[in-house]
């Protein structure tokens, strides 16, 4: 087999040298001045004798000199194209993101070491040519300094030097970004050994990678110390880290090779948090049957962390917010999972590095996979399955909103040629994003507005979800080859790396550099880069799987790794009593939707029958498939018998609700989550109830709980109540049932009898024996009861009566919980419980029906009695928090959110100054974020330009990089959320020209050291203004025409649509038909211009899903509808789509005639045509379209039904017709 991947080996001319060793010596670390001074020394082996220059990566540093072998001075050129993405004097960009994307991609690729680029070009002198011999190493020394960096290094300098917080510094990393603090070849594929020397103040400790050799006094006679580290394991530059500060040191009592560091005053928290780390070491070493790859391991807890956890070779830097005491329950699970991932990344990310940035999915996926195996062993299968289900939902949500995530983008827009054994699992259609080539953004990939070619151009949110999808794909691979064989694949990779490193250490000259094989080498399986076993790539991993298992997974990689998207199944069935079979129908009708792809291959269907659980493996070969599954059971009319479940247990069931003739209790599609899929299973409510009560798989139970929301019946109420009270049920299912029961109760508000939902359950579990209305002392020793005690009040807060108001009984119940809350005898803190009560109190608030006269001020006397109670309790909690701080200020966070909700719903004056005070630097991070969320919410509805500039000042100048990042994500999330209140809003100041210019300037010229923030700003700019030139840069006379034209474009965004709506006050935005599924304005940027050419890309009623009613209205062609004085409802004008549909069908007829075929009229019959308001210019183009259209004509949409053995149904895919 010949399998060609351009990233299997780095082209020899891209980097004609190798680095075998590197020295970093920082002699001038000044934390208060935020500067460092030092040098680096690289040992380089040329691959050719005529080496003329060396390209290195370095940013924001000042370079003083470059020397060869301490003798020959070398000239150098130092320029970073990312310092100015789009030139200031450029008049062609028009502040449009479509031009920025191409410039951003080109600028980043200029410095990409895997593409042979670099910011620093050292020109080797001619007089040193005798030492630049092929295969002979030479030393290149570079002296440099760094002051007030934007990224790479973060200095924490407290305002009060005598306070609790102490000054310290540490390295930060966004993918490969070591170039931000020392010159290097900043590539994961360039590995070498390291010697690290750091000179610090006497009271400081320097923690870095490798083994600590010695601590000596500085040679200059000062009282400073020099820490010497040596890393003998070949490591890439991005995996080198450093932390300097007055750390307290704690050696793990059960593993002396492990050392923990924390800031002063946190030692007690550190001891408790790290007590289980030795268990993780034992688990990973036993699982992988190999020793920990490094001689030591260090964890450092610091303030203002760039991320919660960042792994470096033999060390990990974590946020102090992960520390906790024995009294904190909620944080325990979060901290343990972060710690598990950090340790797993030591094996697959630091020790086993990646060949190219496009292979990062392997390191992220395998490390997350290993960490969840630990979670499954120590926290149970239910928690493991719940995490799998949650990650899957996150991936589906992102792909449906933005497009399919491509794990390995190296082969995008390139053909993949391979030959191998045939497989039943393949993919012939993938809809990453339904966009036209004409609308493709220059420089972008896969239809996104950013490039996937380099991690420094990719949206941070995309990378976050990519990590989750990578783990799901690794898990899918494990299920296909078997758990034991998959662990053998990982073990073999580690064993080969151990052998390679041992050989490199014995050679005495650094790393062994094997010669690259000829490009035409043929192997028996998928070929890979065999140069270095400590580097992993998609192709090499595929080969490793082939060598160990004998299974060729090339097609699997092409389907799930090199292509994006997920599968969407719709399943329905009927029972045939005469044949005792289940007639199953599985459809894939949503291929035209964003992120959805076609699937061809095996699919497991699980039937729970009266005689047990039976699984059937079906072969999906088209978009519409049917199967007849013979049941193993007969219907039971009279006799009763216990029913066996999939777990082997037998249970008694009440079968009175089911069909007497059918033995099927419920049906599940892909029960093991072996695909990245969304399933819509259509079955009666009683089957969902059986599945919820008797299925033992957590994802199946949660799916049943969510499905019962659509069946607000008394039986659903009883079933959900039973699950909440069931002590044998997993707590995540019980808490989810609480929230769904509240929604069911709201839907049944007119017929609901008895007290509010769940109030009796709560009093039964937690009420006093003599007086259930008074809550007992808190006792959180039972974890299920603890989480239930938080979930029931939170879900009850969403209860509403027939008038849409929270019942007074619920409000009184919540107030009593505050009154009788007693945690004096409890060993567990009630911080999170009290925060949940505050949150619940805020969620009871509904929009006020104002009785005040227009212009009157809101006073304490004008508040209703219920609102006064809520306000008093929130104020009390907020003031109490200032005197008695709780863990992570969780109560303050919820109080701020509740206050904003009271403002938003008109109960309090709309004043944002109190939130700005809480958002200042120096407050706790979560408190600042909650306050800023309130400011953002106020700004988008009632704010002024000053409020928008306040937010942008924090994005630009805040001392904490994490706050700048989180605020950007917060603004994006708030702008894409639906409005919870129905108040009319003016034009948001965030859409102003001033804000656009500031964001454009920041992301173009002021983010040289923070690639993550630059990508955040690109996301923000896209959310606000879209791809094209922002409307705020146009004259008022041009905005209407431009907004109208953008509604037809696949690159339309929220801003263009909202502007068009605001500028057309006389046109009523009519609601779409209830049967039509319309893309919301939130994602109308994904609408495709060519949807009219796809007759199959329709919903059930024939409405193109990528069109919106009214989007083709034109004042010149049809009369606008005038608002009636009383606001009467108007009918939907379905004729709005006529012009575009007819024109697209006309174009389709022309294309068919050009191919010599008869034009098809079947697609024309699928549309409703109502009116012929045509301009004269269009009549000439539509002469053949002579038949008249009636206002309504009945039609039946014919769907092709195919059996499972048919392979021709894929031709109906709208994606293929594109």
Note down, in words, how this protein is organized:
The chain has 1218 residues and is α+β, with helices and mostly antiparallel strands. Among the domains are: 11-80 and 119-246, Immunoglobulin-like (Sandwich); 257-297 and 304-351, no CATH class; 360-370 and 379-411 and 448-506 and 533-565, Neutral Protease, domain 2 (Orthogonal Bundle). Strand 4 and strand 5 (72-78) form a beta hairpin. Helix 14 (731-747) packs parallel to helix 16 and helix 22 (925-941) packs antiparallel against helix 23. The chain starts with 16 loop residues before the first strand and ends with a helix. One of its GO terms (cellular component) is transcription factor TFIID complex.
